[in-house]
Amino acid sequence: MDTTEIARVADGHWHALEDDQVVGRGETWRRHDGRIFLSIDSWQDTAFDRLAATMLAELPRPLYTMVDAADLALASRWERAGFGPARSEHVYRVPTDPELTNLGAARPPEGVTILPLGAAEKDPLRDLDRTVRAEVEATLGWREMPAEVLPRLDDATVVDPTKYAVAAEGDRYVGLIRVAPVPRQPRIGLLAVREDRQRRGIARALLADVLGNLHRSGVRAATAEIGAANTAAAALFDDIGAERVGTNLEVVLH
Length: 254
Description:
It is a single chain. The relative contact order is 0.19. The protein has helices at 45-58, 72-80, 98-101, 122-138, 202-216, 231-239, and strands at 5-10, 13-18, 21-30, 36-41, 63-68, 84-95, 112-115, 164-169, 172-180, 187-193, 221-227, 243-253. Mean pLDDT is 89; it is low at 149-154. By secondary structure, it is an alpha+beta fold. The protein folds into two domains: 5-89, Gcn5-related N-acetyltransferase (GNAT) (Aminopeptidase, 3-Layer(aba) Sandwich); 91-247, Aminopeptidase (3-Layer(aba) Sandwich), CATH 3.40.630.30. Residues 112-254 form the N-acetyltransferase domain.
């Protein structure tokens, strides 16, 4: 007999209870681009299924979640709830040691200067961010970018300029890299160069600057997520010795 009870304990939060003990938790939140993501934390199939049924009945569609491709049991649970594949992204471990990345000699092209993390001015940085987003949308498409860098509904795409290093050509910014200061292993969230300045070594120079500074501060590796369809970015990270350590699957319920 199923004695699992589901209670909504707060806005966007549910608990699965058995004999007044919490055996599962569900949560939902709206990401910057407006999409609704959810998560369910429970090792019990019954609790997971009951939480999923209750949450899906109360939430608007479409709904999204991320699953580690290696977690077959969790992927099966979401499939049972009706979710199907949307996209995938590979997780990379990126060494910072120039002797491993071969970036020690990487320099920006003539006329281009690298401004380190925190040195960029907000307005030209936002202008560059909007430009590269429009260029990627017209080619690869931002749906293939990691969810962390999808645009916000209010167009405030650059929330914290201190997380960015940029490549400047004169008074114009032509490339950027964003690094989130996650403890022990910082995450490279975005690396982009204006379309008319690509294939000149600017992306490599940005990586060399950021990774080199991390290495000098004692950080041995960073992480990065690259959409499976972004073959150019994958080739760059493969070339500097980054190791693919996992794959995330984004699944959706329409």
